[in-house]
TrEMBL record:
Protein name: L-gulonate 3-dehydrogenase
Domain (3-hydroxyacyl-CoA dehydrogenase NAD binding): residue spans on this chain: 3-39, 43-156
InterPro entries: 3-OHacyl-CoA_DH, 3-OHacyl-CoA_DH_CS, 3-OHacyl-CoA_DH_NAD-bd, 3HC_DH_C, 6-PGluconate_DH-like_C_sf, 6PGD_dom2, NAD(P)-bd_dom_sf
Enzyme Commission code: 1.1.1.45
Pathway membership: Lipid metabolism; butanoate metabolism
PROSITE patterns: 3HCDH (PS00067)
Amino acid sequence: MKTVAVVGAGVIGLSWARLFVEHGLTVRITDPRADLAEVVPDGVQIASTVAEAVRDADFVQENGPENLEFKKTLFAELVREAPQHALLLSSSSAIPSTAFTEGIDGSRVLIGHPFNPPHVIPLVEVVPGQQTSEESVTRAVEFYRSLGRTPVVERKEIPGFVGNRLQAALSREAAYLVEQGVVTPADLDAVVTNSLGLRWATVGPFLGAHLGGGPGGYRHLATHIGKSMRGLELGTPSQDPERLIEAVEDAYGSSTYSALAETRDRKQLAVLTALEEN
Ligand SMILES: NC(=O)c1ccc[n+]([C@@H]2O[C@H](COP(=O)([O-])OP(=O)(O)OC[C@H]3O[C@@H](n4cnc5c(N)ncnc54)[C@H](O)[C@@H]3O)[C@@H](O)[C@H]2O)c1
């Protein structure tokens, strides 16, 4: 893999482009946005059309709008325009690739779903569709690994895949707790960063629970504290997010996006370095 095409240069596409170029790959990016030249990372080439971006690509990472019709049209074009050997990956957060490869050759199309920002966060969920070949899965996994990412292959398509389904469960209760006036958005964030976030950077929910049970392990936890946890009735937030949007803007709106993003990246990189050293 030497040449990568990045289609869509929003939040995710720009971050992928940065990761690819930092690993010495030739990167061509395309996006109709008027300010594209001002936002592309140094060393990334701009292509004026999708066809031009993918013409000699070995790997395509798609990051356009999260919209089924958009992805159907775009992937039909990618299958037509990219070289036969090129892998075609979508960053989609929730749409399985089987849904947008109906009627086209989907053997080299699959999901490569990152967590924002992909130049920092290691996970890539690799999700084959019904037509995806095993060879495409293996090549995608090898490619992401060569970039220092941690690909996890998921063997059954489900909307939202694994990471976003887990995130949605937590986000739903977080929204409910803020709407009910139990905590402010900043206090809820403090609860997470000072407990679950720290824990989950080192042990996942299952190993965490196994340790939470002491020497009796997961069996002890499941049959002891687990009983009261299973009995908790979780809330359902309102369908109108407006009050929540205002509360989050009150908490963080006075800082710029770039200042908040820089602090996040610096702290997350420090955590990754600490994990590598331990
Ligand atoms: N934001 C996240 O946290 C996140 C995380 C993981 C995956 N994703 C997924 O990544 C994809 C992109 O999300 P985003 O948050 O970067 O969105 P975004 O709105 O920031 O960027 C989308 C970009 O696609 C561009 N675009 C529109 N039509 C295009 C075309 N024909 N050709 C090329 N580019 C075109 C837009 O101009 C825009 O810059 C989505 O599928 C999303 O689900 C997002």
